[in-house]
Amino acid sequence: MRMICSPRTQCGYAFNTQSFICLHLLWQTWKKQMERDAAFAQKKAERACLRVHLREKYRLPKSELDENQIQMAGDDVGLPEDLQKMVAEDQVEEEDKDSILGQLQNIQNMDMDAIKEKAQATFTEIKQAAEQKCSVM
Description:
Layout: E1 2-4, E2 14-16, H1 17-57, H2 64-73, H3 81-98, H4 100-109, H5 112-133
Antiparallel strand pairs: 1-2
Helix pairs in contact: 1-2, 3-4
InterPro entries: Synaphin
Subcellular location: Synapse
Pfam families: Synaphin (PF05835)
């Protein structure tokens, strides 16, 4: 049984039913592969975007590979929502720590007795080492 190509395309090529089904399956497979490739490229670009953000945050050198991945996926790539929330929380915490009130809270949280003990122990060690090296002391 011979059949003209799909009525939608109207290309005029004659295919038998088996050939048409094969071509249709190939088309569907190719289409799914392209969708998977696009999703994979999007994920890679999101990861690259996260790495770029972390490099900026910790002042590390930039990577051309990450920049290229972001450009290949299009410039509309951003961090996923859950990572955006984490980044926002980190920024709020860092701003709190950097403020004067944050510094004062850090001072209040210090164990002054432990610091004094550590300083006294260090001073004693230095003094003993100096006494051993110099007989005048």
